[in-house]
């Protein structure tokens, strides 16, 4: 049985995606799981502080999970329920 999201949850997710940097981060995470903040900034050719803020907003919106490896590196992994959506979108976008 499919668990449907409430309107409030959907609103939070959509607001979380409402920025081109955040969409870029989600598309990158659909291709590469467990990537560090520094690697995201490098891949997107953007400032690490900017990417950090957008990654934080994605986390607050419930679109990204954080995984800590020691004290230094933060890793982000796309939540599994969004992964197929963005993989499909990413594949169509790049065609």
Question: Explain this structure to me?
Answer:
By secondary structure, the protein is an alpha+beta fold. The protein is built from five helices and three strands. The chain has helices at 7-16, 20-31, 37-44, 48-60, 83-93; strands spanning 35-36, 64-69, 73-78. A three-stranded antiparallel β-sheet has the order 1-3-2. Strand 2 (64-69) and strand 3 form a beta hairpin. Helix 3 packs across helix 4. The protein starts with 6 loop residues before the first helix and ends with a helix.
Kindly provide the radius of gyration, computed on alpha-carbon positions and rounded to a whole number of angstroms. 13 Å
Domain module tally? 1
Shape: globular
> What is the CATH architecture term?
Orthogonal Bundle
| Mean pLDDT rating | 77
Instruction: Outline the low-pLDDT stretches.
Output: none
Name the helix and strand elements from N-terminus to C-terminus, one letter apiece.
Answer: HHEHHEEH
CATH superfamily: Winged helix-like DNA-binding domain superfamily/Winged helix DNA-binding domain
Please give the CATH class: Mainly Alpha
Placed side by side, the strands forming the largest sheet appear as 1-3-2
Largest sheet: 3 strands, antiparallel
* Topology, number of strands: 3
**SS field, number of helical segments:** 5
Topology of helices and strands:
Elements: H1 7-16, H2 20-31, E1 35-36, H3 37-44, H4 48-60, E2 64-69, E3 73-78, H5 83-93
Antiparallel strand pairs: 1-3, 2-3
Helix pairs in contact: 2-5, 3-4
């Amino acid at each position: 049985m499919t668990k449907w999201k409430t309107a409030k949850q959907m609103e939070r997710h959509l607001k979380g995606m409402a920025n081109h940097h955040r969409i870029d981060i989600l598309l990158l995470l659909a291709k590469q799981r467990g990537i560090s903040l520094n690697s995201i900034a490098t891949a997107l050719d953007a400032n690490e502080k900017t990417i950090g803020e957008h990654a934080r907003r994605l986390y607050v919106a419930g679109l990204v999970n954080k995984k800590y490896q020691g004290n230094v590196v933060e890793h982000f992994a796309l939540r599994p329920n969004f992964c197929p959506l963005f993989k499909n979108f990413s594949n169509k976008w790049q065609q």
